[in-house]
Amino acid sequence: MEESILVVNCGSSSLKLALFDQKNRKIASALAEKLNNSDAFARISGDDNPVKLPAGASHEQALQALVNEFRNRQLLTGTPKAIGHRVVHGGETFREAVLVDDATEQAIEACAELAPLHNPVNLAGIRAMRALFPDRPHAAVFDTAYHHTLPERAYRYALPEHCYTQWGIRRYGFHGTSHYFMAREAAKLLGKTPATTSIISAHLGNGCSITAIRDGLSVDTSMGLTPLEGLVMGTRSGDVDPGLFDYLATRGVSAAEAHRMLNNDSGLLGLSGQTNDMRSLCELADHGHEPSQLAIDVFCFRLARYVGAMTASLSQLDALVFTGGIGENSPRIRQETVKHLGLLGIELDTGLNRDHGRMSDGFVSSPDSRFPVLVIPTNEELVIAQEAERLASA
């Protein structure tokens, strides 16, 4: 099937592989986890039997095994038309998706200091797939690219000039493919074009970010130089006082320990002391576990506060949009967040919110709400597939 598109998304210890046909329909997907560990495993969608991986399988070995499995199952025949790769950080070098060559690889590698946990494994996936499909076009699609329309007043930090001009310290933003998808899908549901649609898009999962989209373009966003800034997340703290680092140092906490604490031990996990999974937190809170309820309260309040902040970048608001695993699937989080937005006149319909808007094309707001509220399932893989197909056809 030479019109198919493969999409590769490599995480620090996992990877996702998806196959799309020429009509943008997902044919199959696969997930490999615990890579570089003795218990690494992988599964193909719809099959509970694990795909055998070598002990301690690397990203390269897992990709080889999954591509072979797609071929053995006749899901992938021949060679794909193109391969699309998610890359987390493009710095100021990449403002849109690009075809990959050796120079592109080097430039992605140069951005690794901005995303040391992500770019190296993203690059490992690119190199592995280029070795498997050397004569096929490969496209790099960057999480940061969509946010390059931010005005300078939104992306600059109040730091000395050389921090930006010499070191590139600025707000870059992330989850760009998801927010871009929200801009398109919300426009369809609202009966408008993306170029005339302005929304606030909240992507809520283990990583969370919120973006103000004006006339289809990103004009403000919560994540910054790295994916740590902004909202409370699963294990990430979001915004903290920068003076915290000096204070921690007086307590004998090293920079590496502080980094690990803020990225891996904070957020919902840190507040609750139990878990970073929102479903589990809600269950614990319902059984009287006060730290879990506090985690939910802080999460929703911080989100609501950012919704209010994003209105400063808009001249109109066509909808507030929830997406991501939490945003799509937690009526409680949507309800608790909107409770803080009474001054904006935003209200939810209890029944529509409970069924995630499935009965109303995604609308979960009440008729009395000043602004519509939408729940839209994100599809970042589809965006990557479409970008790869576009570049391969150019």
Descriptive report:
With about 400 residues, the protein is α/β, with parallel strands linked by helices. The chain is built from 15 helices and 12 strands. A hairpin with a 5-residue loop joins β2 and β3. The radius of gyration is 21 Å and the shape is globular.
The shape is globular
Mean pLDDT: 95
- SS-derived structural category: alpha/beta
Beta-strand content: 15-25%
Q: Calculate Rg over CA atoms.
A: 21 Å
Beta-strand segment tally: 12
Order of helices and strands: EEEEHEEHHEHHHEEEHHHHHEHHHEH
Percent in helix = 25-40%
Largest sheet: number of strands, sense, barrel closure: 7 strands, mixed
Give the key terms:
15 helices; seven-stranded mixed beta sheet; 16% strand; 394 residues; alpha/beta
Short description:
By secondary structure, the protein is of the alpha/beta class. The protein is built from 15 helices and 12 strands.
Give the secondary structure arrangement, pairings included.
Layout: E1 5-10, E2 15-20, E3 26-33, E4 41-44, H1 59-72, E5 82-87, E6 98-99, H2 102-110, H3 119-132, E7 138-142, H4 152-155, H5 161-165, H6 176-190, E8 199-204, E9 208-214, E10 217-221, H7 243-250, H8 255-264, H9 267-272, H10 278-286, H11 290-310, E11 319-323, H12 324-329, H13 331-338, H14 350-354, E12 373-375, H15 380-393
Parallel strand pairs: 1-5, 5-7, 8-11, 11-12
Antiparallel strand pairs: 1-2, 2-3, 3-4, 6-7, 8-9, 9-10
